[in-house]
């Protein structure tokens, strides 16, 4: 019966013996959160859908290798991450900046925080939205748009020193509110653009 699948070990045991109801339960309960996670990695709907489809297909194909003693949720998130990395390697040449982005993702996964990444991103976004207006605008031009301090200075018609002050203030405020690993979350949030700034 479906209710018995709520227990990880029973769910995995049933998957291992090829119970299609167990597989249906798995897809029904994990498709949406895994898609949201994949979308946070790819920023592309089609790619996220492809990744999740591959995750479930591989899980079924290699179901006999599953371990009933492990968390199915952690397994699925880790597999989603691995699918993303495989796809990334296939479609893009890995530059130094891209490698830094991937390493930030990998560190988050290795710390077993994969399911918390979206929550952390939301928390950082909330912190950014509450920055003082001028500080917020300068910070986003730097991290989201990837402008240099000189470009921001010219665009906002303010001194470079003022730009530096706003960015430093933003980092100080966000670190107090968001704690450690802020840089990793910013890399994930804004992909590689923020690495152009000397304030990474």
UniProtKB/TrEMBL annotation:
Ranges in a coiled coil: none
Keyword Methyltransferase: no
Similarity comment: Belongs to the sigma-70 factor family. ECF subfamily.
Protein name as it appears in the record: Sigma-70 family RNA polymerase sigma factor
Domain RNA polymerase sigma-70 region: 26-92
Segments forming domain RNA polymerase sigma factor 70 region 4 type: 128-171
Protein keywords: Sigma factor, Transcription, Transcription regulation
SUPFAM superfamilies: Sigma2 domain of RNA polymerase sigma factors, Sigma3 and sigma4 domains of RNA polymerase sigma factors
Pfam families named in the record: Sigma70_r2, Sigma70_r4_2
Upper lineage: Bacteria, Pseudomonadati, Bacteroidota, Flavobacteriia, Flavobacteriales
Source species, domain of life: Bacteria
């Amino acid at each position: 019966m479906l209710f018995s699948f709520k227990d990880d070990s029973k769910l995995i045991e049933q998957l291992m013996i090829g119970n299609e109801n167990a597989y249906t339960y798995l897809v029904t309960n994990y498709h949406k959160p895994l898609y949201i996670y994949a979308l946070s990695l790819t920023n592309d709907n089609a790619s996220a859908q492809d990744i999740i489809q591959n995750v479930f297909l591989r899980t079924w194909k290699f179901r006999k290798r599953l371990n009933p003693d492990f968390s199915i949720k952690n397994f699925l998130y880790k597999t989603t991450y691995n699918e993303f990395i495989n796809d990334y390697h296939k479609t893009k040449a890995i530059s130094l900046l891209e490698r830094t982005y991937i390493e930030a993702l990998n560190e988050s996964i290795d710390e077993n925080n994969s399911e918390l990444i979206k929550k952390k991103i939301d928390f950082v976004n909330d912190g950014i939205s509450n920055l003082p207006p001028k500080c917020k605008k300068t910070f986003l031009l730097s991290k989201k748009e990837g402008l240099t301090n000189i470009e921001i200075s010219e665009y906002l018609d303010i001194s470079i020193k003022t730009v530096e002050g706003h960015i430093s203030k933003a980092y100080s405020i966000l670190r107090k509110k968001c704690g450690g690993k802020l840089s990793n979350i910013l890399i994930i949030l804004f992909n590689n653009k923020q690495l152009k700034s000397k304030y990474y």
